[in-house]
Amino acid sequence: MKLVKVKNYEELSAFAAEKILEKVRSSNRVSLGLATGGTPVRTYELLIDDFKKRKTSYQHVHTYNLDEYVGIAADAQTSYQYYMFEHLFNHIDIPKENVHLPNGTAENILQETQRYEDAIDKLKGVDLQLLGIGENGHIGFNEPGTPFDRTTHVTELEESTREANSRYFNSLDEVPTHAITMGIATILKSKEIVLLASGEKKAEALYQMFNGEISNNCPASVLRNHPNVIVVADEQAASKLE
Ligand code: F6R
């Protein structure tokens, strides 16, 4: 696991956007694993800036998001699908049919998790997976205690995760209790992983990720077992690291 320390959120976002652009330009078929949440917002803005200025095309790019809430319709403003179109897809030339997220309102949710896993498995994992990290060390919505061999599955969100995400809803009550998430095993199939951590709220999770034992108490610690991971941390997130 390689650590790249940067000064602040802006530098972190510039690093991540450059990594994604390098990948997008590297081949005529590219798969990207994408994250939602606060951390990648600026990265996506920089991709949009690049698209406006340099017209980097995404016609050959296929995206697979980490997760989606269960019970939120795709077109609702709080869905992760809505977030992705708002923050990125509406502003670049990616074909709609190349965009993949789990369907949180599928009639048969177990079948849906299998469908999503099979699609990623067919690729033998995505080419580049972008990750954030939860304050409790979660990646995707794999909360502490999730076995490392889980593939895409339905997970119950921790109270602290629901609270952290309640900023996107009118009240905590509205935050779903469950989500479909790529599992740790799905994430580990990725050929390359870039994890972004910004702000002092992430400092303890980052400390555990690097220095704690590799255990599902801190799901992100499993990334130490993957051969191609870059962790990009700003000064505040890296403040507990050597
Ligand atoms: C989002 C996701 C989550 C977030 C994490 C950090 O798709 O899977 O693991 O990356 O909760 O969220 P922020 O960036 O809002 O601090």
From TrEMBL:
Q: Which keywords does this chain's UniProt record carry?
A: Carbohydrate metabolism, Hydrolase
Q: Using the record's annotation, list all stretches that form the Glucosamine/galactosamine-6-phosphate isomerase domain.
A: 11-226
Picking any one GO molecular function of the record gives: identical protein binding
Q: In which pathway does it act?
A: Amino-sugar metabolism; N-acetylneuraminate degradation; D-fructose 6-phosphate from N-acetylneuraminate: step 5/5
Q: Which residues form the signal peptide?
A: none
- The catalytic residues are D67 (proton acceptor), N136 (for ring-opening step), H138 (proton acceptor), E143 (for ring-opening step)
Q: Which reactions fall under this protein's catalytic activity? A: alpha-D-glucosamine 6-phosphate + H2O = beta-D-fructose 6-phosphate + NH4(+)
EC? 3.5.99.6
Q: Gene Ontology cellular component?
A: cytoplasm
- GO BP annotations, alphabetical order: carbohydrate metabolic process; glucosamine catabolic process; N-acetylglucosamine catabolic process; N-acetylneuraminate catabolic process
**Alphabetical list of CDD domains matching this protein:** GlcN6P_deaminase
Domain of life the protein comes from: Bacteria
Task: Please explain the role this protein plays, according to its UniProt record.
Answer: Catalyzes the reversible isomerization-deamination of glucosamine 6-phosphate (GlcN6P) to form fructose 6-phosphate (Fru6P) and ammonium ion.
Task: Note the HAMAP family from the entry.
Answer: GlcN6P_deamin
Q: Which family does it belong to?
A: Belongs to the glucosamine/galactosamine-6-phosphate isomerase family. NagB subfamily.
**Descriptive protein name:** Glucosamine-6-phosphate deaminase
Q: What is the lineage of its organism?
A: Bacteria, Bacillati, Bacillota, Bacilli, Bacillales
